[in-house]
Write a structure and sequence with these properties.
With 202 residues, the protein is mainly beta. It is 11% helix and 53% strand. It is built from 1 helix and 12 strands.
């Protein structure tokens, strides 16, 4: 009687395809966790609701800004993702100009507030409306400026000024347009209803 010796291969000598797939999933999972742990957080460091920012001179409020939310980031930039409302006051504490925009931010390095999106400025004394896409306000220089196209409509006289770029006092009492065209109404000596279209050189 002859006996043949047939080698038997145990399961730990070879890995089945299922085991190989399982090990691959575990490896990728570990790699994913490692990447997440090493990722740098770039989100806001601070979230503040119902924000109110006041600027005063000699104990008298000059500017009041309100917005629903403020996000502060690592570079100290503050982002205001919701509607911004700013009131500018005269020496008597009366609101003379109101501004609103869709959003904005504060750049601490430049010390400048930038408001964007459907920016509307209303001067109550002269009943003028200024509209643009972006405005910048510097608390240090007390100036408002932009390089964007803008339009000013005087609702009392129907006079219109269109410009590209503007520099103004923070309460908009004085405005200097850069490249401007407009339609204005004169009361003397031509007829009162005569309209003139004026333009400044580019």
């Amino acid at each position: 009687m002859k006996f043949s010796i047939i080698p038997v291969l145990k399961g730990d000598k070879f890995l089945s395809p299922f085991c190989i797939m399982l090990l691959g999933i575990i490896f990728l999972s570990c790699e994913g966790k490692k990447n997440k742990i090493g990722a740098v957080y770039t989100g806001p460091l601070e979230i503040v609701n119902d924000v109110e920012v006041k600027y005063s001179e000699q104990g008298k409020i000059k500017v009041l800004m309100r917005t629903p939310k403020s996000l502060r980031f690592q570079n100290e930039t503050k982002v205001f993702p919701d509607t911004i409302n700013i009131s500018f006051f005269d020496t008597l504490g009366t609101v003379v100009t109101r501004l609103r925009s869709d959003s904005g931010r504060y750049d601490q390095n430049a010390d400048v507030y930038i408001v964007k999106g459907n920016v509307r400025v209303v001067k109550s004394e002269t009943n003028e409306l200024l509209t643009t896409s972006e405005l910048n306000w510097s608390p240090r220089t007390r100036k408002v400026f932009t390089e964007k196209p803008l339009s000013v409509i005087n609702k009392r006289t129907s006079e219109i000024t269109n410009a590209i770029g503007m520099d103004a006092e923070q309460d908009f009492t004085r405005i200097k347009f850069r490249k401007a065209t407009g339609v204005y109404k004169f009361t003397a000596p031509p007829p009162a209803d005569t309209l003139y279209k004026l333009s400044t050189p580019p």
